[in-house]
Design brief:
Four copies of one chain form a homotetramer. Chain A has 360 residues and is an alpha/beta fold. Chain A contains twelve helices and twelve strands. An eight-stranded parallel β-barrel of chain A has the order 4-5-6-7-8-9-10-11, surrounded by seven helices. In chain A, strands 1-12 form a two-stranded antiparallel ribbon. In chain A, strands 2-3 form a two-stranded antiparallel sheet. The interface between A and B is large, with 40 and 45 residues. Bound molecules: flavin mononucleotide (FMN) (4 copies).
């Protein structure tokens, strides 16, 4: 049957992807409490529409760091996209460009950041649209020189922002990458490892724990680049404050899609407290469980400037490559417009907290 | 086995109706959150009876806009009833007349509004009962002249009120009407369409979004007819206020049976706040999820003057035509009397908020 | 396997009883919301034990209207017990007598009230125990003379109290009694009937609704008998007040096991508010969903003097007759002692509200 | 496939253990409400991480009664471990020693307390680690002399603390121990019994109820030993106060794994109120439902000094003997380190209540 919602791509991708890849993509850590929260939280937020609005100048457009976005929806950094489709991140950036949506390329992309930037440049003119935003998601490397190399490459390739992910410095996975898929951007960079001698240190005291990034590393990074710098993985209001003090230009409220520490609340449930602290000072993005246009509206009503889409981009990529991702973005934006119209919101600024009401 | 409750008609209709029609009838939009809320909300409202009442003058009668109703139950406007039964709306009005219950005919009825009015007139005398109320549900048309034509026709045919539905100006459906079923009242009226060129506007900027009705259209309509004018689809208290200011004579609290914007709260959960604003100024009706006599009681205790019944009329129509709808109304009214008796309420006015208590 | 709890009798009875009888016994009215509440409410009440108590003088004994009860557990009035076992209420009273627990005989018993009293008298001596309490549950009859006849018969037969049930004057059932089972105590008494002519009155205006008992009937009854008079079916605090004013000597908080008005809260959830009004003035009993010794403790902690057991007596009766009912009472009392010991309660008076805590 | 979490051992043990033993091990009392609460409660507690922490000196070490523990995790007293594995408690103490985790031996151990102590002594040197803590869990016996004999034996064998369990003096079980498994430490000690003559006393008035331990017995015990004395089974804040007054050196908040009184709240839900009363005066341990490193963190954030692990040790023992238990402890400690790292906690003292947040 037809594909009418992001959930349809998820359903189809479940059959198409090899089980190990599917598990890697979908599963949360631990008992999946946080993955579940990410959805439950959205489903409990109710929408209270206003009737008979004037929709004649309605628009979903957004300006972010001086760049135009067709809608407040970006593609979240998701590693190793060639797991889902041979073209991997190249397909994704082409779809994003076609739809006027921004994309954040992962440090662990399975395509080089230069190739991705080139694919954007190549796709844009044919579409008669301005190139969509392309940001680089950074994982700090053990050596600062290695980190800096990544940042310089991103700057050189024309990326418009750096997103420093701070919530996954220590993360466990049992997934063995399929042959031919690897973190190509990290070729030649040493990565710290767990010690696993029996009766030796488990995590604390191992090189891994000794070298995780600290606040001082954020300050250092801030001093090294002129690109806008966003911190991804902020959940506590006090960390939002610290991130601002250490030079962040934007925050991404995220629990990493429930993949890191099980028991974290839904990102959407942490948003309002952070928005209260940040105010109008900088953009706040949020991700985790966004699957519907109504979810986008809920996030914006709670203080988000825009949202990121994680797993659904991979579902669509697995099912139909570039066309799938473009279609997924189209459906989501279309649902967003419909929801705004039905709520009586003409612009993103109309999406205020008084449109929300708790559900049973 | 026997048909003892509206749910039995639903069960039977599920087997009788073609799957596509059934899906169209039953489904909510999106993930069905709001459809579910409409029932969950009723099920969580508890009833606290008073004992040893004097039931000797008990009655369920109600006067609305100067017309007598046997019970505070009307048939909601439901489009295209010939999907369920060849007689469609004609069967429905006959059943309503027999039971002394009002009916609201949809703009999208599959029978003309004139024929429906004629069927009422023909049925009433044989029943020895005064004709039941017949109201016309209006969807504003792209051109005001077309809208006015509909209103004039309804006035001429003897409809006693106009119900302007404001919550479904933009609504998506994938349902293809079966052959022979159409919106006969709209023959000859142009309807706006979505633009669906790829990379063109999705909704915002299309003719559809440019022409949705606005508050000024309500004022205009108010000036055009002397019939009582109800606004259907009010959920926010501020909109109740605006509707009154713009000339409404009655409000219908409704989320359109969960068919428009997923994530809306149950209509019953929005009722009390609106009743607090409206007070005794005008009747307030509510629909969405009414399936039991106890639900009617709960609605009235929360401030409703009467309730509308949506899908169940179609279930009964599909199963047994005019007899089904009449029987469904009889069962509901019978449950209402039983509930009132057991609660110790003699008249509708006895159904006060102190009879309610939250359930676990 | 073994029978270790009341639930085991329920399980076994489900297989033994004819489906129609089982449905009649078990089902609640409407959608079963209230039946469910009766259990959910108990399951959400938590128990907070105190440790290292002195249990040397522990006892579950209770004095009620001057009569000794082995435990604060009585058998609720349940109609037509010969549905479950040929000996019907005779088996039940024998079991109650053996266990020192009181029994309340229904007006709708399938054995005469005189035979039941005789069975108690015959059983007691052999057991070397004082006869257990035997009360008569009264449904008011259409004519006061008929009602009075019942009361006089109960007085003459040695019943120690009258329980006037006020919550089921109008109650629907579709159950056809099996051959040989009838309300023998009502032989010769006329019973009002529903009018069911189509388009005639449904309930309001029928003889049934015209003759339901009113507060004045309670006052009248109070004047007619010197037996303690309990009112069964009180749920609203204001009705508790009125019942006291009209001469009640005891109250039974009950929703009739969820069999009358669907949507009523759990009886246990209405208890505390009523206890707050009644104070120490008179005994308060409660029923609905009592299945465990811990439920008895919860009821007492919330202000009950004792509890009634409804359906479980019939389950045990169906499975094993007199031995079953006696065993069921033994298990429940045994669980009660265990719970009291583990909670650190030596007497019923030790079971105070501070032993309760909400569960998740 | 692989064993990655304690739940995997549970799954495997379910297939390996005989059904009767499995039921004995797993089941809670009554309807299992409390067993369920023990897990539900943890799953509803959310964790709010802080980002970019300095993990260079991170450690899970803990000093308790002057002894070093590798992690704040001890093995709870669990009776009759030879049910699960022929080596029983000997395997368990070897695993605990290998992992630097303490163990509490049950009075009802299926191996003598002297053999257990000897096994610890024998295992420690080979591991090059200091011997892990070994405490003795005491059930008071009917005669004080018998109780004292147990305590003296534990002292002589080098146990470092006595844990008096007060919540299971009266507890029902229908489990028949398999041949060859018995409470070897109680050989030659008389045990009180239930009276079960029909119509005789059930529990109250039997020898069992007459001899349950009382507060005065705690005072007496306190005077008899110089070992640290912990009271296991405290749930009410007032009992915490009394336990301190009667000489306890530590408290264990526990509902005995839901095996005693059904309806008790989760132990974790009683912890904070007790911690508020105890303050820094003494260690507070908690058990019941600990299955994940994140559960350990939640317990510590709510005021626990350490946690006990009950059933999971038996699951691992049944599956893989000493290696299983050691591996289970390793996994749990490893999860704990991971959780602390991801939460940004460097030491146990960093695990403060502000890291918690309710989940939906
Ligand atoms: C398979 C997968 C890989 C991911 N890889 C990265 C990554 O490399 N860097 C990063 O910052 N976030 C990564 N994330 C997290 C996403 O950026 C995003 O926070 C998350 O997926 C949002 O939740 P959602 O999947 O429910 O939309 C990954 C998520 C998934 C599912
Ligand atoms: C199949 C269907 C068609 C409907 N058509 C209309 C309509 O034409 N006009 C309108 O105002 N409401 C329409 N409604 C909404 C109903 O009037 C009513 O608000 C809703 O069905 C009430 O919820 P219920 O079905 O749970 O009783 C329709 C509902 C259904 C189910
Ligand atoms: C089959 C059945 C018949 C009953 N008959 C009577 C009755 O004749 N009179 C009455 O006062 N209550 C009657 N009751 C209600 C019980 O007295 C009692 O209130 C109820 O069963 C308690 O709930 P429980 O069944 O959950 O314990 C009846 C209940 C059942 C299940
Ligand atoms: C099979 C079994 C036997 C137990 N035996 C004892 C015992 O002898 N003494 C004691 O104090 N607690 C005993 N307990 C309770 C445990 O010490 C502990 O409180 C409980 O198991 C913790 O819950 P958990 O199993 O969910 O981790 C036993 C528990 C189980 C499951």
């Amino acid at each position: 049957p037809g594909i009418r919602a992001l959930a349809d791509y998820e359903r189809l991708a479940a059959d198409l992807m090899p089980p190990a890849s599917w598990t890697y993509l979908q599963d949360g850590t631990g008992d999946g409490l946080t993955v579940a929260q990410n959805r439950i939280a959205f489903d409990r937020i109710g929408l209270l529409p206003r009737i008979l609005p004037d929709l004649r100048n309605a628009t979903t457009q957004l300006d972010l760091f001086g760049q135009r976005h067709a809608a407040p929806i970006l593609l979240a950094p998701v590693a190793y996209q060639r797991i889902a489709h041979p073209d991997g991140e190249l397909a994704t950036i082409r779809a994003a460009t076609a739809m006027g949506c921004g994309m954040i390329l992962s440090t662990l992309a399975s395509v080089t950041l230069e190739e991705t930037a080139a694919a954007r440049a190549a796709a844009a003119p044919g579409l008669g649209a301005p190139p969509a935003a392309l940001w680089f998601q950074l994982y700090m490397q053990e050596g600062r020189a290695d980190t800096l190399t990544l940042v310089r490459r991103a700057e050189a390739a024309g990326y418009e922002a750096v997103v420093l992910t701070v919530d996954a410095s220590i993360k466990r996975t049992a997934f063995a990458l399929p042959p031919g898929v690897e973190a190509v951007n990290l070729r030649g960079i040493a990565r710290p490892a767990h010690t696993s001698q029996v009766l030796g240190p488990i995590l604390f005291g191992t090189p891994l724990a000794q070298t995780t990034p600290r606040w001082e590393d954020l300050s250092w990074l801030r001093g090294e680049t002129r690109l806008p710098l966003l911190v991804k993985g902020v959940m506590a209001p006090d960390d939002a404050r610290l991130a601002i003090e250490h030079g962040a230009d934007g925050l991404i409220v995220s629990n990493h899609g429930g993949r890191v520490l099980d028991g974290m609340p839904a990102a959407i449930d942490c948003l309002a407290a952070i928005a209260a602290i940040v105010g109008e000072r900088m953009p706040i993005l949020v991700d985790g469980g966004i699957r519907r246009g109504t979810d986008v509206v809920k996030a914006l009503a709670l203080g988000a400037t825009a949202v990121l889409l994680g797993r659904p981009q991979v579902h669509a990529l697995a099912v139909a490559g570039v066309a799938g991702v473009a279609h997924a973005l189209l459906m989501l934006r279309s649902e967003l417009e419909l929801a705004m119209a039905q709520l009586g919101c003409t612009t993103l600024a109309d999406i205020t907290p008084d449109r929300l009401t708790p559900l049973r």
